[in-house]
Write a structure and sequence with these properties.
alpha/beta, 19% strand, F-box-like_dom_sf, 324 residues, F-box_dom
Length: 324
């Protein structure tokens, strides 16, 4: 039996074990094996200057049938090795051709969000689950999100600039990204995206989140259980506000720049411990880089005892997290 007569599924399984160089050679043998090799070779594309394969964008832009094999696409263009504007035009065409994507990461010049424009006006990305970009949340990104009905993880506007803070936010239809579960980005964008969507995990960069912003995060259609934020507000009142609005947190990471260079007092430890006790589901807490110790309460494993004093050496190792 010749290789050409084998079922396509078997050929695909065999191709999974070949190296990239072997797949490239196999793709040049005949018309039967070429798509088999390309399907595996282009399934996961990672393009970067240090990988010396940025030229793959030209292939994906000029050969749509190859681009449709791509499931995961990652590109990083180093600011120390910028590319020409024409390169981003080719990237725009490549994105348009990669209609079967499940994961898309664009770490490129933050001013070229227009590379999404052509794709978002012509096709949908029904299988896309994860989208990460270095862009601000603008009209181009919003229109692209309109075309990603299955999106679960989103990172956008992670490094907001002064111009994006002052510009009016784009409109995002309430029906867009209805399955979103995880958001990473700025508090400004989170206030637009989280309400009305089933976002369970939120990680906010920058120091713009205030106590007044927390009720908007609580408008997720499901309980927020993972939260990482940076704020200029004092930790104690900020934690109290969090408890009022998102009491079902399981993991909380809080970075407060208020009095960051002052050593915490005993009273401060006790106040924080008292508030943490009110979070009945909380399992892990970190404050400004300090991991807050805890352990399950004796005779009641559903509750935790939280650190209420600075850590000290214990005689009994089992008592390391007993602080009262």
């Amino acid at each position: 039996m010749s290789m050409h007569s084998l079922p396509v599924e078997l050929l695909n399984s065999i191709a999974q074990y070949l190296s990239s160089s072997s797949l490239a050679a196999l793709a040049q043998t005949c018309s039967t094996l070429c798509p088999v090799a390309q399907r595996v070779l282009y399934c996961n594309v990672l393009a970067s200057a240090w990988s010396q394969n940025l030229c793959v964008i030209d292939t994906l832009a000029k050969r749509p049938h190859v681009a449709r094999f791509v499931r995961s696409f990652y590109i990083a263009v180093d600011s120390l090795a910028p590319v020409f504007l024409a390169y981003y035009r080719q990237l725009s065409k490549a994105i348009l051709n990669m209609s079967e994507l499940t994961s898309l990461t664009l770490l490129v010049d933050s001013s070229v969000s227009w590379v999404l424009k052509e794709a978002s006006s012509r096709i949908h990305f029904p299988h896309l689950l994860q989208f990460t970009c270095s862009f601000s949340f603008d009209e181009n990104v919003a229109r692209f999100l309109d075309r990603t009905p299955s999106l679960v993880e989103l990172e956008v506007d992670s490094i907001p600039t002064a111009s994006t803070r002052s510009s009016p936010p784009p409109y995002l239809a309430p029906t867009s990204i209805p399955q979103l579960e995880q958001f990473i980005g700025s508090s400004r964008t989170a206030e637009l995206i989280v309400p009305g969507r089933p976002v369970r995990s939120i990680h906010l960069n920058g120091g713009g989140l205030t106590e007044d912003d927390i009720p908007l995060l609580a408008r997720s259609t499901v309980p927020v259980i993972i939260l990482g934020v940076v704020t200029n507000a004092p930790p104690v009142p900020f934690l109290e506000t969090l408890h009022r609005h998102v009491p079902q947190l399981v993991y909380l990471r809080l970075m407060s720049t208020k009095d960051i260079f002052m050593a915490p007092t005993t009273e401060f430890y006790e106040q924080v411990a008292g508030i943490l006790t009110s979070f009945t589901e909380l399992n892990a807490f970190e404050l400004s880089g300090m991991h807050w110790g805890s352990q399950a309460k004796k005779n009641d494993g559903t509750k935790r005892v939280w650190q209420s004093a600075p850590l000290q050496t214990r005689i009994n190792p089992e008592d390391d997290l007993l602080f009262d």
